[in-house]
Amino acid sequence: MTWRIINASAIGTSHIASGHACQDTCFVDSLKAPDGAEFLVCLVSDGAGSARYAEQGSDLACTTAMACIEATVARGVGVCDSDVGDWVAGVQAAVQKAADAVGATARDYACTLLCAVIGQGSALFFQVGDGAIVVTSPAVQGVVFWPDAGPYANMTHFVTDDDALENLTIASAHVDIEEIALFSDGLQRLALAFETKLPHQPFFEPMFNVLRRTQPSECEGLSTQLGQFLNSPQVNERTDDDKTLILATRRTV
């Protein structure tokens, strides 16, 4: 698989005003199984604004989930829906260990978690909380899970919650994913058409069009430009939250 991948996070204006750091984290990596099968793994986590260690929580969720997925891929048996519960349990155990070390609680590390594991002819997705995953394949284009708004306004569920497994959504398919985007809830109003529950193509298409024409060696510089866009007035006028975006394509022009 030859993927062109860019990713960036940008602090929200409300976080700057309140003196908080950016509490979003994203990770992207390509993993290879013993049989040579390759998997693209994308992770996004948004630390809860009310959590004392939100920044550390989102980072720990992504690093631990990536390590768990890497261990599964290394076994050479592929990845499947039943693995996801173990990955989430691994994240929760890591968070609890970190909390115990400083006399805190898992709630102090509250964060969402979105994940995509893309193979050749296969895709596995899971999500706890808001934010969204958008995919394009020869057969389908759309939002994998509509953002989870939680039981109350301006609230969502977290991977650190005791009942996270009850609020975990999982989907898998035997399909060739050609393009994928993952983003935190700070971009939902820009990236999604809430009336139709579809991706807002005027947001995605210009960026994917550039990415399709970009050489893999040029993606690092393009990621820098993406970060600048996420921190631009045209974005900050629409959202004051932290913003994270991963874009990946294997289409070419």
Annotate the secondary structure layout.
Layout: E1 4-10, H1 13-18, E2 24-32, E3 38-46, H2 54-74, H3 81-101, E4 113-119, E5 122-128, E6 132-136, E7 141-143, E8 169-173, E9 179-183, H4 188-191, E10 192-193, E11 198-199, H5 201-212, H6 219-230, H7 233-236, E12 243-249
Helix pairs in contact: 2-3
Output the CATH class name: Alpha Beta
DSSP strand content: 25-35%
Instruction: Decide which structural class fits the backbone.
Output: alpha+beta
Helix content: 25-40%
Tally of individual domains = 1
How much is the radius of gyration in Å? Answer: 17 Å
Q: Detail the poorly predicted runs.
A: none
The CATH architecture name reads 4-Layer Sandwich
Question: Sheet with the most strands?
Answer: 5 strands, antiparallel
Distance, first to last CA: 16 Å
Number of separate strands: 12
The backbone outline, from C-alpha atoms, is globular
What does it look like?
The protein has 253 residues and is α+β, with helices and mostly antiparallel strands. The chain has one domain: Phosphatase 2c, domain 1, CATH 3.60.40.10. Helices cover 32% and strands 27% of the residues. It has seven helices and twelve strands. Strands 1-12-9-6-7 form a five-stranded antiparallel β-sheet. A hairpin with a 2-residue loop joins strand 4 and strand 5. Helix 2 crosses helix 3. The radius of gyration is 17 Å and the shape is globular. The two termini are 16 Å apart. The model has no long low-confidence stretch (mean pLDDT 94).
